[in-house]
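Everyone, carefully examine this protein record:
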Amino acid sequence: MLASARRAGFNAVLVPVPWLCPAGALTLAPRDADQAATADGGTEALHARLARDAHSVAGHGMTLLLRLELQRVARDAHDDTAPDAWYRDPVDDPARDPRLPASERGVRQLREGPPAGFIAAWAARLRRWTRSGVGGYVVHVPPVLGPDAWRALFAPSREVNRELQCLAWTPGLAPAMLAGLRDAAFDGVFSSLPWWDYRAPWLAEEWDRLQSIAPVIAPTCALDGPCADPAAPHRTGADPRRAWSAALSGCGWLADDIGGAGDINAWLQETLMAGPPRLVVGRDGGATLLARDAAADGAVLLALNPDDKATARLDRDLAAGLLPPGDLSPQDQTPPDDALAPAGCARYLLSAASPVRAAPRTAAAARGEGGQARVAIERVTPAVDGGAFAVKCGVHEQVEVEADIFMDGHDRLAAELRWRADDEAGWRSVPLEPSGNDRWRAAFRPSRIGPHTFQVSAWHDGWATFQHEFEVKHEAGASLRLEREEGLQLLREADQRAGQGGASGPGAGLVKRALKVCGVRREGEEPEADQIEMLLSPALAQAMRSLDSRPFESLSAPCPVWVDRARAVHAAWYELFPRSQAAEPGRHGTFDDVIQRLPDIREMGFDVLYLPPIHPIGQANRKGRNNSLRAEPDDVGSPYAIGSAAGGHDAIEPRLGTLEDFLRLVHAARGHGLEMALDFAIQCSPDHPWLARHPDWFSWRPDGSLRYAENPPKKYQDIVNVAFYGPAPKRARKLGLWRALRDIVLFWAEQGVRTFRVDNPHTKPLPFWQWLIAEVHARHPDVLFLSEAFTRPKMMYRLAKVGFTQSYTYFTWRNDKAELEDYLRELSQPPAADFFRPHFFVNTPDINPVFLQTSGRPGFLIRAALAALGSGLWGVYSGFELCEAAPVPGKEEYLDSEKYELRQRDWRQPGNIRAEIARLNQLRRANPALQSHRGLTLAASGNDRVIAFAKATPGQGNVILAAISLDPFHPQTARVEPPYALFCPPWSAELVAEDLLGGQRESWQGGAREVALSPDQPYRIWRLSRHG
C-alpha cells in the first residue's frame, strides 16, 4: 500500500495511533497509550512500534501522521494512561441506551480544565513518539483543549522536529468553536467537504473561517470512513467530483482511495493553487462552479454537475465574476456546448492574458458610412454618446450588441459583429442574428482588460435570398428550372472566388460537390430531389457565406469598449484612518497598527481597504478638532491638507511610518484578500513643497494671497488650489502640473496600489481627467478610479464617461421608497448602466446621513442591506459597524470627526452589526446577481414602507429576491410579488425559494408572499430557482 500511495504522489500517510484498545471496541479510545498489540497476541512498547512504522513510511519518501484522540479513553484504561482525576465516567451506562452513538460507549471523557498533570504527561509522550519518527498529528476533537494547552502540548515535540505538522480535525465545528482555535498554532485545519452536496454555498463560507486559523486541507472522507457518520453522503465507487473538489479547494488534500489520485497529484504539481476558492452553486440545470487562482498565473475553474441523473451546463455568466483576465479552455473532454454528464465534472484552465497595450484615445473614432450606404445600420447599442466615449464592462462579461439593419426591397441580408482588443491587428467575428423588426443581435466576451472596439458589418446576402425564393416556390409547387440555373450561377461565382483566393477548406469542397450534383440536368426537366435538397441545405448556405463577396457591405462607426477587472464591478470597501488604529488611547496609529486590524476587516467580508491621504500634513492654517480654525499644539490636522517640510503627495506622514512600512501593509493586506485603495486628493496645504518650487501652479488673488479651497457651503482654509490653466488670453494647459499629478498616480501604482479614490474631481477640469486617466491606463490598464463627486447629475455622468471606473452616488440621500425605486431603475438600465458604475457608500467621514442620526441600529441594518444588495459596489466608513451617528447639531457631519483628531474604538462593543455585514458580504460573494448594478427587477410589495426587488444574471442562472423595510421604528408587513416573469413560462412557474438568512426552503407558486419585517430584522433575502 505504501508503494502505491507514493506512486500516486502522496507525501504523507495518516493512521490511527496503534495503541492497545479493548477487544471488540467500537472506538479508538486507548486502554494503554504506551503499549501496542503484536501479531502473536502479545504487546510491545508503542514508541518502538512507531519507530518501525515511521521508518517504513520514510523509506517510501513519505511522512507518518497519527490520528490523535485525547478526549476519551477506554473505561478500563490503565492508570498511567488515565488517572482517575483526568477522566469522568458517564452518568448512565451508554451501552444500555441505544440512542447514544458508538463514540459514547465503553469510554470515559476528559474533564474540563485540563486536569493537573495532563498536559505535561501527554507532552512527554508525544515527544517520545516524535523522536521515534512520527512527523505529525491530526487532533480529532480540537475543542477539548484551549489554545494555550495545545501550544504547550506540542512545544516539546516541535523542539525535536521543527517541521512537525500539528493539524486539527475541524469538520462540522461551529464558528464559535473555530474562533477558539485561532491562537492554538495549528499547522492545518480540515474542511467539511465530505458532507458537501455540490449545491450548498457553505463550502466557501467555511473556508473563509478556517483560513483565519491555518491552511485548509480538504478531505474526501470522514476520518472513520463511510460507516463512521451516517450523515455523511457516500456513493458507491469513486466520485471524481469529490476528489477534484478537494484538490482545488484545499492547500492540501486527504484521500481514502488511491484510485485516480495519481492524475490529480501530478496535476497539482504542475498547477499550484493560491488564494481562496470562489464558489457559485448551480441551479436549474446549471453546473456548480469552483474557481481558484493558480500560484504562477491564470486560474482553474472546476465545473461540477450536482445532479446524479441529469446533465448540467456551464453558465458563463456565472463564471464571469469568478475569473481573472485570460482565455478559458477545457482540460477535459468537455462537449462543445459545455454540457456535463450526470455526476460529472470538468476542469477549465484560464491562461493569463496581458492587459491591452494601446495608445490613449484622444478623440472619437471615425464615423460609419452614414447615408451613402445601401445597407443601413442604425441604433447600434451599446454606445455612449454615439461612440464618443467607451462602454464599460467587466472581463468575461457578455457584451450584447444590437443594431437596426435593413435595405430596400425584400432581399435577404447578412451581418456580423466584429470586435478586437485595440492592440490586435485582426478582427474576431460572430454572426448577428435577426430578432424581429429589422433588429439584429450578437454578443462577445472580452477576456483581457483595457480598450476594445466593436463594429457591425452588414451586406446583401445573395445566396440566402436565392434559398428563400427557391424554398417558397418549391413549397408552392412552382417550376424551379430557372431557379436552379440561378443557383448554379451563384455556385460558379463562389467557386471562382475560392480558386482566386486559394481557398481549399470544407466550404470550397462543398461548393464543388454542389456544382457536380446540381450540374447534371436535361433540357426542360425540373431539378431532381437530391438537387433540391442540396440547394436548400444549411451546410451549403454556410459554405456560400464563407465565400461571399459581400456586395453593398456597410460598416457602422467603431464603438469603443473599456474592459475592467472584476473588482471594478464587484467590491466591498472599508475606509479607515490609519492614525486612529492604535490600541492605546491617545497614541498616533501606524501602518503596523493597521496590519493588526486586517483579520478583523476581512472577517466582515470586505475586499478593499481604503485609506484617506497618508501624506505629510501641513502646519499652516491647520484645523483643530471639529473643524475649528484654531488648532492646539497636539492637534493632528486634516489629512487632506497635504504637504509639509516632510514632503508632498509622494511622501508619507512620518508618524504613520515609512514607505517600507506601507509596502509591508500592502503585502499583508493582499495576504488577507484585501486590495489597497488610496485617496488621490489634488489639495495642497500652504506648506506644500510645490509652493516654493512652482508658485505658478497655484491660484493667487489680486492682493497676492493664495486662494483657499471651497466646495460650497464648505470652506477649507488649510488647503490651497492649484491652477490647471494659465492666465488669459491663451489659457494654456500647465503641462508641468498635469504631468506632476500624473506621475504621483504612477508612483503609487508602482508601489502596488491599483485603486484610487479621487477627492472632488468635479472641481477639476474634465479634459485633465480624461488625459490623466488615459495616460495612467496606457501603462497600467488595471488601475481603477473612484469618483467622489457629489454634484450635479450631468457632471457625475460626464466624469464616468471621460474614464472614471466607479462613482459615488446620491444613494446616501435616497430614503423613501419611490425615490429609491426611481434611482435604482435609472442606474441599472441603459444609458447610465453602460458607462456609470454606482458605488453605494453608506457613510463617509464628511457625510453622517440624517437617516442614520435618528434611526439607531435598525437604520444601519436597513442602509447596509440597501447598499449591499442594490449595487455590485458598496462601502462603509469605519464606525458604521458600531452604529456611530453622533452629529454636529444641525449638520450632516460627525461630532468629534476623526478628520481632525484621533479616535480609538472598541471594535467589538455591544450593539454592533459586524455579523450582519459579514453575512451580506458572504451572500454577495456567493451570488453573481448581487455583483452588478444591472439585472434589477422591482417587485410590488403593497406597502410604501417596504421596498422589494430582484437581481438576476442575464440567463437567470442566479436570481435573488430581497424585501427591505424602510421603517427603523415599527414592524412592517408586505405582500411581495415574486418575479415569476423572469422564469419561463411565467404563468405556470413554481419556484423554489431558499431563505438565505433563515435557511428554510419553500415552494412558491403564483400570487404574492406575505412577508413580516421588524426593526431587529428589517430585511429578508431569498434565492429563487425552478428546481432548487
